[in-house]
Amino acid sequence: MRLLSFSLLLVPPALAATAGSFEVVGNTLVSAMMMFMGNNHKVYIIDKAEGNEAKLIRAQCKGNRDIDTHESTVMDIATNTFCSSGYHVPNGSFVTFGGNGAAGPGASEGSEVTPGAFFATWDQTYQDFDGGQSIRVLNPCTSDDDFTSPAVSVRRRWYSTAESLGDGTIVLIGGFQNGGYILRNVPNNNPHDGAELTYEFYPSNGQTPQEVNFLVKTSGLNAYPLTWLMSSGKMFMQANLSSTLWDYKDNTETALPDMPNGVVRVYPASAATAMLPMTPANNYSQTIIFCGGSDMPEPAWGNFTYPFINTWEYPASKDCQRITPEPADGSSPQYIQDDDMPQGRTMGQFIILPDGKLLVVNGGLNGTAGFSDKGTLLTSQNPFGESFASGPVGTPAIYDPEAPAGSRWSSAGLSTSNIARLYHSSAILLPDASVFIAGSNPNLDVNISDSVPYPTEYRAEKFYPPYFSSSTRPVPSGVPSKLTYGGDPFDITIPASSYSGSGNAAANSTIVSVVRTGWTTHAMNMGQRYMQLRNTYTVNKDGSIVLHVAQMEPNPNLFQPGPALLFVVVNGIPSNGTYVIIGSGAVEAQPTAAAAQLPANILSDANGSASGSSTGNGNGDSPSTSSGTSHIALIAGIAGGVGVLALLAVGVGICLARRRRARIRAGIAASKAAQTAAVATPYQKVPSVNNSQVFMNQDHNDERPWSKPEDNAWNSSTQSFDAYHDMMAPHASAHYTDAPAGNYDYQHHQQGHYDYQQQPHY
């Protein structure tokens, strides 16, 4: 197999790309289901085990550290990473958790199934192992990068969420043991069916996983539960229509208001979500925003096998809500209606930009995430192939959280990409302050045929936000490589050549922002956060500006330890980001110190010496193929063997070392027994109850009924089910008008009642 080498070059400080435009920057070799940025020079792309065009060479690959030649290397991932979760650890390494059983071509079950198990342990064709309990650690740019670790979690987790604590410990929350479109039968009499409703820690503290009542309550619509660590150390969680503050220490919850307007935000509704920037102006308040998703009525969500309506005809929501779970004034948290998005979106993704604005990209006008070759309960003939969504949204939009209500959204001057980015697409902020966009594969396996509406997408793009209209970028010096929680401030110098006009005005406009780009999949960036550091300034007579900058706020819960990018933003124009490590670099109680007292501002009548524009408001009208100043070269790494497996594409001069195949098999074989033994209650085959009782299946297609016996999981004679049913009724503004109340056989076949959003064929 040939290895593809292409590199990402940062935009030179004095050379601007076309603001508001897209640029096709290369081929990812693998479909970009998951993605994270390892450091200033590498973007890692991970896919599940499927038929990607890149194949692993059995010969030993040499690790490459040469970021000047930007060589690309295939990396081996031995276990199936399908719909994993991931996060960073304090030293800058990244960990990917869980996944699915071994898979073969067409998303079929792998060739080897352990008797009594409900998942395959190995597939001969794709040569992938079961990944349900796998823990895979990658240390960017070292000789011991290893995505083949035999380490396992205590429980199987597929569609789980990872969230870090203030000491750097990662909490693994929820997920599936096995499942389908959504995790429920109809009627939903067993919240444990196929579900993993517990939490555990990485690194493990030896605690037996405990059940989270919130996950029981939100049964059916709690895949990839949405979580954010709060300043108190508690965790805000949202799933189905419910919200809570969860204390992981004693596993207690404080119920918060339900999501307004009946809009589901978690997968497969897949809204754009983010914590808004924490700044001195808002006293580092933690506010969460939710935009888009779906207000489909409760019965329409269907069951394990498929939705009960033709989702691709049902418009996605444009509704936006904010909530501050821990108000500083002690008031009761409430959802606040925010400005609607310009268009409804499912699978839209928020990227926090260095200037504190939020960019939303990707997604569809109609439907939900997910795919199937079964269609829906209404029809087996899906006009959009296997996709549950339609109408790709190619025009980004920018949200300004500081703008007055009614004027926070804008798409003015932003180009439209002609590349569909639907299910299994991803996006991430790059150090040059552009946004890298890749992926989209709403198909059971790789399908690049022109005959399918939305084929597997390998083209990668960069989007250049409006600040790329400036011909001058700040070039700060003195930026540290490590930040602490409180303690002595530091100075950053901005030369006069980095701006034009009044030095006092430039200094007053300057902010220092720390952005964590996160680990991205399924329209989420796990760990994404933004903090503006406090600063004062001195304007020198030569026009240079010295910023006196405080360290991180002395509360690690606000911004957990680990890697991030530090940007200096002058007149709205960001510098290239500097890779920094926040905290001690270890999983431990982070050292803190008092916040420093900063010196007073010192003004001068000096001016900057930059020529041309040094403010960023440009418009972009170039096509997605426009040339630019930045070129991406990705590196593909493969999971599995000689087949085309869960590949890891590594971009931007990657340095990866692939382990010998014999070592992989030996290590994984040693862990297979542990994985099998750790399954607490294996599923058993049971007969179908009735035509509407459709059970889960490993590959979303298998028609064999599977279910966990209720007597092993839930005592229905002593427990009330009222606790876990989110009551979802059609909102008054919902587009769908003929949802049958209580008719779970869903025998209506009326169509044409949706405000269907049409978009040109991609």
TrEMBL record:
The entry's keywords: Membrane, Signal, Transmembrane, Transmembrane helix
CDD domains per UniProt: E_set_GO_C
The protein, known as: Glyoxal oxidase
Keyword Signal tagged: yes
Spans through the membrane: 632-657
The species this protein was found in: Mycena venus
Residues annotated as signal peptide: 1-16
KW ATP-binding (keyword) present: no
Disordered, as annotated region: 607-627
Gene3D superfamilies: Galactose oxidase/kelch, beta-propeller, Immunoglobulins
Domain Galactose oxidase-like Early set: 473-581
Domain Glyoxal oxidase N-terminal: 124-467
